[in-house]
Structures are given as structure tokens and as C-alpha cells.
Design brief:
With 461 residues, the protein is of the alpha+beta class. The protein is 31% helix and 23% strand. α10 runs antiparallel to α11 and α11 runs parallel beside α12. The protein has three domains: 88 residues, Uridine Diphospho-n-acetylenolpyruvylglucosamine Reductase, domain 2 (2-Layer Sandwich), CATH 3.30.43.10; 125 residues, 2-Layer Sandwich (Uridine Diphospho-n-acetylenolpyruvylglucosamine Reductase, domain 3); 190 residues, Vanillyl-alcohol Oxidase, Chain A, domain 3 (3-Layer(aba) Sandwich). The protein is built from 13 helices and 19 strands. Bound molecules: flavin-adenine dinucleotide. The site of flavin-adenine dinucleotide has 34 residues, from β3, α5 and β10. The site of flavin-adenine dinucleotide (FAD) has 34 residues, from β3, α5 and β10.
Length: 461
């Protein structure tokens, strides 16, 4: 279908009528930033950017987009690095920044009801100030990313080992469907409490990792958790990645760990040839932390790893929430990086480390990898990061090849690339059960017959 044959002046006038001229633009200087992201994707053209404030405004924009067949790309912080908010077929970028109200914190049922433009930084700061006994799991991403954008891509953070990925922490969702109607999902569909997804048919999952192709989330309820009094970090070190599946399995057999991360990097030099293990523990007293540390040391020893007392500054860096993950990346001159984040089964950790090493070295990139274990190791999010110089097109192309090869290898070993860019999405679709694809296509064309929602992503032909 040919999208978007229209008179741009007419459209801009209609958009201004809907949300006011200060929140609409088609000026190239405003669109520039929306036509690209910090990853390796080439810039792509954007026709309009809008910043709505209300659900009603979004409804009107969606209705207009249907009439005129204009693509819409919902955008939170725009920080996936994988080009997910750079329009594939032009159209409107719907920037959610202004919808950033924290509507309610329910202390007893432990959830936050927020608008979809609320950033992780804002919610975290709000809780620290007003509800110091509660915390929200956030990614180690810049605090400008949105809680919704992250949860809607199966993101994960420091409570994911205990409580699952962030998509599973969504209790309720309000969405503007592609036809412009508002729909509430979860208990909020029939109760004033946004406390659970069930026990009714659960459609929230449809909106997770569908990259804005099925609607625009406007509100969500996200789970909060009791904040521990104390948090500490127990570093471990091992030489042979083959010991990792058993070791991590044994750590998660206990209730010792809040979060488990591993890091594999050739830089700084002391890390080369080792896997650094970081287990976060929590407690109410020094004694509790000490006893958990002792138990972990035992598990490390039995698992052919060893405890490592790290320099003090490491504890400061890694106990920060969010950790500034980019500190760990091997930035080249020009400072770019993008990673394949692969959801893989625990047993594939040694294999993927080898894959990451091989592909990095083949492309002349210093190996930089790591993982976060999700929900008692029901899966791991393993990232392989490729740095590049933003000012050097050849270097960007090199990283792009490395990413593409990695996606293929991840799929070969039975994993799934996460928040994948267009090429990766195509690889996933090629491998996917045909009936899954058909279901995807059927749901999508039923909800969005004009194909206006982030077209080009998850495109099943
Ligand atoms: C240094 C660094 C470290 C990182 N560490 C982590 C980490 O530890 N864990 C982790 O999970 N991620 C991590 N990331 C990735 C990053 O957290 C996510 O990409 C980011 O959280 C996504 O949120 P966003 O607001 O930027 O979403 P966007 O990039 O704006 O959007 C993501 C997708 O969701 C869609 N979308 C956004 N908002 C809506 C909406 N309201 N309705 C419908 N669809 C919508 C978009 O169309 C897009 O397809 C890291 C990134 C960086 C740069």
C-alpha cells in the first residue's frame, strides 16, 4: 500500500489545531535529531514531530493519521540504539516527553501509575523523595529513557533476577489503539486499582516487543518493590566460562542474590582472560551481608571461581543505580557503540562468549560483553557490544557487519536477539514458526488496517 500521499501544509495545520503550534514541527532543524539515534542505523527521513500532552490529543492525531495514511512512530527516550524510533516510512514521530505525570503511588499494593512519558530518572527520584521504602527496577541506561519504552521492549534491570523482566512488571496499560480508540488492559479495565493483569484474558503481552506497531501506550502501572536497607556487591572471578552455567545455577538455587551480572572484556588489561561475576546482595544489617558474602564465597569456591576483593571505587561505580554501563564500553575515538542483546538459555553462556570473542576480534573490536540473569536464570540477557567512531562511515559499517553476524549466530544457537533493528527483525521472522507469523499479521491487520503504526517493523509479507 502506498502510504502518505498528502499535502504537508494541510497536515501541519491540522496537527497544530490539535495540539498547538509550539508542539508540532516539520522544520528540518527540529526533525534532524529524530531522523537518527546513537547506534549504527543510517538516518531516515521524518516528516513531522509532535509532542502531545493528553490522551485525547493522541486520539485525534491517530484519527488524522488514518484519514491521511500517515505513519506514526511512538517515541519514549529513543535510546534503544537499534533504530526503533527512526521512522522506516517517514511520517510522524510522536514524542511522549510531555506526558510525564506520576499519577499515583499505591504503597500497599506496590505499584506506580504513570503516564508513558515518565522517565526512569524521574520515577526513581520521586520515589527516593516521597516513598523511600519503595523502589522500581530500572535499566542501566541513561535516566532519560522512559519506564514505558523500556518495559515495552522486555527491558531488564537490577531487580530482574528476582522479579523478571520489566515487561512482566507491567500491571496495567492504557493504549490508544491504531483506530484512535482508548483501551484499558488489566485490572484497570474494570477496577480503579491498577494492581494486576489477571484474572482476565491478558492482552498486555501483545504490546510488549511489538515496537509500537499495535498502538500507543499512554499510561501504565509498574510494580514497585520494598527497598532493602543495605545493598552490597560480591565480586567473583573465573577463568573458564564453561563453569558459569553451573555456578550461576547454584547461586540462584539460593535466595542470596538480588542481581547477577557477568562482564567479559579485554580492557582494562586485568580483565582479559577472565569472567568477572557481580552478585548483588541485600540485607537489614552488616551481619546479614557478611553471612551472605560467606555463603557466596563458598559457592564460588565449589564452582571453580574465586572471590575477588575489588578496589573501593568499583563498589561505588557498580552500586550506583543506574550503573553508568557505558563506562564499561570500549569507546573509540568518536564514541559510538551498539550491542546485540541476546536472550539466551543459561547453558549457552560459554558458547556465546566464544562467539562474541571471535566476531569482535574478526572485526578488530576489543571484546566487550556481559550478561544479566533474569528471573532465577529462566533466561539471560547477554550483550555483545561493538564500538565505532561515529565520524567514520567505514567503522560504522564494520560494527554493522559485526552486529548482523552476531544476530545470525545468536539465532543459530537457539537464542533470540532483543530489541532488534530491522535486519535482525527480518532474521527472526525468517526463523519463526509460520503460524506465529500469520497470527502476528492477522492481529496487526485487524487492529491497524491502514498500516500506520511504525510500519516497516515486524513486517510479515
Ligand atoms: C548505556 C546504555 C545502557 C543500557 N542498559 C540497559 C539495561 O541495563 N537494561 C535494559 O533493558 N536496557 C538497557 N539499555 C537500552 C535502553 O534501556 C532501552 O533501549 C530504553 O530503555 C528504551 O526506552 P526508551 O524510552 O528509550 O524507548 P524508545 O527507544 O523511545 O522506544 C523503544 C520502542 O518502544 C516503542 N515505544 C516507546 N514508547 C512507546 C509508547 N508510549 N507506546 C508504544 N510504543 C512505545 C518505540 O516505538 C520503540 O519501538 C541501555 C541503553 C544504553 C544506551
Amino acid at each position: 500500500m502506498e502510504l502518505f500521499v498528502l499535502n504537508k501544509n494541510e497536515i501541519i495545520k491540522k496537527l497544530c489545531d490539535i495540539i498547538g503550534k509550539e508542539f508540532v514541527s516539520n522544520k528540518s532543524e527540529d526533525l534532524f535529531i529524530y531522523s537518527q539515534d546513537p547506534g549504527v542505523s543510517d538516518p531516515r527521513p521524518v516528516d513531522f514531530v509532535v509532542m502531545p500532552k493528553t490522551v485525547e490529543e493522541i486520539q485525534k492525531i491517530v484519527k488524522l493519521a488514518n484519514e491521511e495514511k500517515i505513519p506514526i512512530v511512538p517515541m519514549g527516550g529513543g535510546m534503544t540504539l537499534s533504530g526503533l524510533v527512526i521512522p522506516v516510512k517517514g511520517g510522524i514521530v510522536l514524542d511522549m516527553k510531555r506526558m510525564d505525570e506520576i499519577i499515583e503511588i499505591n504503597e500497599s499494593s506496590r505499584y506506580a501509575l504513570i503516564e508513558a512519558g515518565v522517565t526512569t530518572g524521574k520515577l526513581q527520584a520521586y520515589l527516593e523523595e516521597h516513598h523511600p521504602n519503595l523502589e522500581v527496577s530500572i535499566p542501566d541506561a541513561p535516566p532519560s529513557v522512559t519506564v514505558a519504552g523500556n518495559a515495552l521492549i522486555h527491558g531488564s534491570g537490577f531487580l530482574s533476577q528476582k522479579h523478571g523482566d520489566h515487561g512482566s512488571m507491567i500491571n496495567g496499560l492504557e493504549v490508544v489503539l491504531p483506530n484512535g480508540e482508548v483501551c484499558k488492559l488489566g485490572s484497570c479495565a474494570l477496577s480503579k486499582y491498577w494492581f494486576t493483569r489477571g484474572p482476565i484474558p491478558d492482552f498486555i503481552g501483545l504490546f510488549i516487543s511489538s515496537f509500537g506497531t499495535l498502538g500507543i501506550a499512554t499510561k501504565l502501572s509498574i510494580k514497585l518493590y520494598p527497598k532493602p536497607k543495605m545493598r552490597y556487591l560480591v565480586f567473583g572471578l573465573c577463568k573458564d566460562p564453561k563453569v558459569l552455567p553451573n555456578l550461576i545455577y547454584n547461586i540462584t538455587r539460593t535466595d542470596l542474590a538480588e542481581d547477577i551480572l557477568i562482564g567479559i572484556q579485554d580492557k582494562p588489561a586485568w580483565m582479559k582472560g577472565y569472567v568477572v561475576i557481580m552478585v548483588y546482595i541485600t540485607g537489614d544489617s552488616e551481619e546479614e551481608l557478611d553471612s551472605k558474602t560467606k555463603l557466596l564465597k563458598k559457592i564460588y569456591r565449589k564452582g571453580k571461581a574465586r572471590y575477588m576483593k575489588a578496589p573501593d571505587r568499583y563498589y561505588d561505580i557498580f552500586l550506583e543505580k543506574p550503573q553508568f554501563a557505558a563506562k564499561a564500553a570500549d569507546f573509540r575515538k568518536g564514541g559510538g557503540f551498539e550491542y546485540v542483546g541476546a536472550f539466551i538459555p543459561l547453558e549457552k553462556i560459554p558458547e556465546i562468549i566464544q562467539i562474541g570473542n571471535d566476531i569482535s576480534l574478526k572485526h578488530g573490536i576489543i571484546p566487550t560483553m556481559g550478561a544479566r540473569f533474569i528471573s532465577k536464570t529462566h533466561s539471560a540477557m547477554f550483550f555483545i557490544s561493538y564500538s565505532f567512531n561515529r565520524a567514520d562511515p567505514k567503522d560504522i559499517e564494520n560494527a554493522r557487519h559485526a552486529l548482523h553476524e552476531t544476530n545470525k549466530e545468536v539465532l543459530n544457537i537457539g537464542g533470540i536477539p532483543w530489541k532488534s533493528e530491522l535486519e535482525g527483525q527480518k532474521l527472526i521472522l525468517q526463523k519463526m514458526d509460520p503460524n506465529y507469523k500469520m497470527l502476528l499479521k492477522t492481529i496487526r491487520s485487524a487492529l491497524d488496517p491502514n498500516g500506520i503504526m511504525n510500519p516497516g517493523n515486524w513486517e510479515v509479507n
